[in-house]
């Protein structure tokens, strides 16, 4: 009998030793450490930390049959379960709107996900998240650049001065960062083009939002002509530039669709095309095709533009082009510079071109948001003549209604 018991114990020990070898606790621990380090996660009541804890527990559960005799397994399971309860993780994961303040913005440059870029600068030039570019020298009034659950940015355009009521410039930029529970306080920043300089603090005098040591929102001075506002909790940063009376802004985010929820109809008003970073100045007169041809045609286009709007150039095309090329500007930024030099004649309006172009290079911006079928809007301005320009205002009204109808139809079909 004793012999049989010994054989049974030996068999059990053999079985447990086989199962023990299959206990992969170290893999669960390595994955946990990698997730925490890669995302710079704060241990606490935030969604990202809770998701990592949940993944850790799921990994342990998969090893349950092989780790039953492992004391470390049971210790880890107990500790993680208690952390879940202590930080209220189950409720946080269920509530999708719960704020998350766990990602450090300085990691943005290392992120492999697509990064998206919007810039509004100079004589009202716009580069959208979609990669489209617009020259909008006739926009007057206050426009929304971005509006969502996290922040709102509004740009006010007005005439250059009382004597020149043809071309417009950026007169004011207003930024509102919304309060998020357990994440950041409400912060706002306003700058006008007649201010002496850019202040490196929000309107209330604060320089951060959230925790002081690791703020969710922070503002800092880059140099005498620019400041940077970082929204660490949504991997977004806003750069503001001021050169004399010229204001410009650029917005960089890691994932517009997830962070800005551009396709979420509860966040962005799909029926309102007054969102510059998404749609540019489609509903106003855009002069995009002035530079889309050979030099001779460009000059003809510019002359037609001048005659049409009774706008007189301050500098000629050739000298403006030479000045702008010396600034090492390319493509859209070169076009914008030439236009500003010709019609604004003020070097301060071209000085933001280079740093905004550099931002695009530093972060390897692809402008890869899926191209939507907006190209037909450009066809209105292919042949720039006075008749076409005047008719384009009528077309814009028709186009506005047509696009709204298409969007409403798409929205209705999407809900079915």
TrEMBL record:
Protein name, per record: von Willebrand factor, type D domain and Repulsive guidance molecule, C-terminal domain and Repulsive guidance molecule, N-terminal domain-containing protein
GO cellular component, one term: side of membrane
Family designation: Belongs to the repulsive guidance molecule (RGM) family.
Main location group: membrane
Signal sequence, start to end: 1-20
Topology of the protein relative to the lipid bilayer: Lipid-anchor; GPI-anchor
One Gene Ontology MF term: coreceptor activity
Keywords assigned by UniProt, alphabetized: Cell membrane, Glycoprotein, GPI-anchor, Lipoprotein, Membrane, Signal
Organism annotation: Strongyloides ratti
GO terms under biological process: BMP signaling pathway
């Amino acid at each position: 009998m004793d012999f049989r018991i010994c054989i049974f114990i030996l068999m059990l020990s053999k079985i447990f030793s086989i199962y023990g070898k299959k206990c992969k606790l170290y893999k669960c621990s390595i994955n946990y450490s990698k997730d925490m380090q890669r995302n710079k996660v704060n241990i606490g009541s935030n969604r990202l930390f809770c998701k990592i804890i949940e993944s850790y527990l799921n990994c342990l559960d998969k090893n349950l049959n092989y780790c039953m005799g492992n004391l470390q397994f049971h210790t880890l399971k107990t500790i993680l379960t208690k952390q879940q309860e202590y930080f209220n993780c189950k409720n946080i994961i269920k509530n999708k709107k719960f704020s998350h303040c766990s990602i450090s913005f300085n990691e943005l440059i290392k992120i492999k996900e697509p990064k998206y870029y919007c810039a509004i600068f100079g004589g009202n030039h716009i580069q959208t998240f979609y990669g489209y570019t617009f020259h909008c020298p006739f926009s007057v009034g206050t426009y929304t650049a971005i509006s969502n659950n996290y922040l709102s940015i509004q740009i006010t355009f007005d005439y250059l001065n009382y004597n020149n009521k043809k071309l417009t410039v950026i007169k004011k930029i207003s930024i509102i960062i919304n309060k998020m529970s357990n994440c950041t306080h409400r912060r706002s920043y306003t700058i006008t083009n007649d201010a002496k300089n850019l202040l490196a603090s929000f309107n209330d005098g604060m320089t951060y939002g959230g925790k002081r040591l690791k703020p969710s929102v922070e503002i800092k001075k880059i140099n005498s002509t620019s400041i940077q506002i970082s929204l660490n909790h949504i991997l977004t940063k806003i750069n503001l530039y001021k050169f004399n009376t010229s204001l410009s802004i650029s917005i960089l985010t890691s994932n517009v669709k997830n962070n800005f929820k551009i396709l979420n109809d509860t966040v962005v008003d799909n029926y309102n095309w007054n969102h510059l970073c998404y749609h540019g100045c489609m509903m106003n007169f855009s002069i995009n095709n002035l530079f889309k041809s050979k030099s001779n045609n460009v000059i003809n286009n510019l002359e037609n533009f001048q005659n049409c709007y009774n706008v007189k150039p301050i500098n000629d095309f050739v000298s403006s082009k030479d000045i702008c090329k010396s600034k090492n500007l390319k493509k859209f930024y070169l076009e914008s510079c030439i236009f500003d030099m010709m019609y604004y004649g003020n070097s301060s309006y071209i000085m933001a071109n280079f740093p905004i172009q550099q931002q695009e290079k530093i972060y390897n911006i692809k402008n890869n948001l899926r191209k939507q079928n907006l190209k037909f809007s450009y066809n209105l301005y292919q042949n720039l003549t006075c008749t076409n320009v005047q008719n384009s205002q009528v077309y814009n009204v028709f186009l506005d209604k047509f696009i709204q109808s298409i969007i409403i139809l798409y929205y209705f079909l999407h809900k079915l």
